[in-house]
Write a structure and sequence with these properties.
The protein contains 7 helices and 15 strands. The chain is α/β, with parallel strands linked by helices and 237 residues long. The two termini are 27 Å apart. Mean pLDDT is 86; it is low at 92-97. The strands form 4 sheets. The chain has a 5-stranded parallel β-sheet, with helices on both faces. The chain has a 5-stranded antiparallel β-sheet with strand order 10-9-8-12-11. The longest helix has 18 residues, at 12-29. Helix 2 runs parallel beside helix 3 (67-75). A hairpin with a 2-residue loop joins strand 11 (185-189) and strand 12.
Length: 237
C-alpha cells in the first residue's frame, strides 16, 4: 500500500535530510511512500486537495506563513491527515495539542525519531481503520469504528450511535467489546460503551461528546472512567 507524505520546510537541506530518512524507513520496512515537498505554509495550502496526504511533517518557523498557522487553516478543511511538527523549539507545544498533531519532533532529529513517528502513524492508522461488521434487519453492515460515538444496550438489543446513522442490532455489549478489541472504546456503564475519540469533556454525570450527547457513567465506574480517559488522552499527546 502507498502512503502519501508531505515534507514542509523552508530550508532545502532540511527537506533533503528528512526525505533521506523517510526513504531509509521505506526500504527497511517494505512500505511505499509517495513524498511531496513545500517550502512554506502558503505553498502547502495551495497544494492541498482532499485526501492528498496521509501524513505531513511540518516545520513551524518559516517565512510567509509559519507551520502553526498553516496547520490551523488546514484543520478547517482536513481533519484526517496526521501532522508531525518538526522544529527547533517546543515553544509551540500547545499549538500541537490544540491542532491535534500526532507528534512533535525537535531538530536536529535522528533516523530513530523518524522511525518512531512513522511507527506511531501506522499504529494510529490501523486503529482508525478498524471496522465493526454487524447484522441488522436490512442485512450485514460495516461501520468504521472511528465513526461510532457510543453504543448503548437496550434489553436484548444494542443501539450503535455513529456519525450520520443509528443501527439497532441483536446482541450485547460484551460481544461488541470483543469485536472492537484494543481500540478507543471504554465501558463506562453497564449499558454504555463510549468512544474516547469523540469525548469533549468528562463530568460526574457522564461524558460530553462532540455532537452534544451525554453518555452516562455509573457511580461505581466514575473514578475508573475518569482515570481511563486521562490515560487515553495522555497517550494521544
Amino acid at each position: 500500500m502507498t502512503f502519501s507524505v508531505l515534507v514542509c520546510d523552508d530550508l532545502a537541506e532540511e527537506r533533503s535530510n528528512l526525505i533521506r530518512m523517510l526513504r531509509s524507513y521505506e526500504l527497511e520496512h517494505d512500505v511505499e511512500l509517495q513524498i511531496e515537498t513545500a517550502a512554506d505554509g502558503a505553498e502547502l495550502l495551495s497544494l492541498w486537495r482532499p485526501d492528498r496526504w496521509d501524513i505531513i511533517f511540518l516545520d513551524i518557523y518559516m517565512p510567509e506563513m509559519n507551520g502553526a498557522e498553516a496547520a490551523r487553516r488546514l484543520r478547517q478543511v482536513d481533519r484526517k491527515c496526521e501532522i508531525v511538527f518538526a522544529t527547533t523549539s517546543r515553544e509551540h507545544g500547545m499549538d500541537g495539542y490544540d491542532l491535534h498533531a500526532m507528534d512533535y519532533l525537535t531538530k536536529p532529529f535522528t533516523q530513530k525519531d523518524i522511525d518512531s513517528a512513522l511507527e506511531w502513524f501506522f499504529q494510529l492508522r490501523a486503529k482508525k481503520h478498524c471496522e465493526l461488521t454487524v447484522r441488522t434487519e436490512w442485512g450485514e453492515q460495516t461501520v468504521p469504528a472511528e465513526e461510532i460515538r457510543y453504543i448503548e444496550s437496550r434489553g436484548h438489543s444494542c443501539i450503535i450511535h455513529a456519525q450520520g446513522q443509528e443501527l439497532s442490532i441483536r446482541g450485547n455489549l460484551k460481544e461488541l467489546c470483543d469485536k472492537l478489541g484494543e481500540t478507543d472504546f471504554f465501558r463506562c456503564h453497564q449499558s454504555f460503551l463510549v468512544n474516547f475519540a469523540h469525548v469533549q469533556d468528562v463530568e460526574k454525570k457522564g461524558f460530553l461528546l462532540d455532537n452534544g450527547d451525554w453518555v452516562p457513567i455509573s457511580a461505581a465506574n466514575l473514578s475508573r472512567s475518569r482515570a481511563a480517559f486521562m490515560e487515553w488522552s495522555a497517550a494521544q499527546d
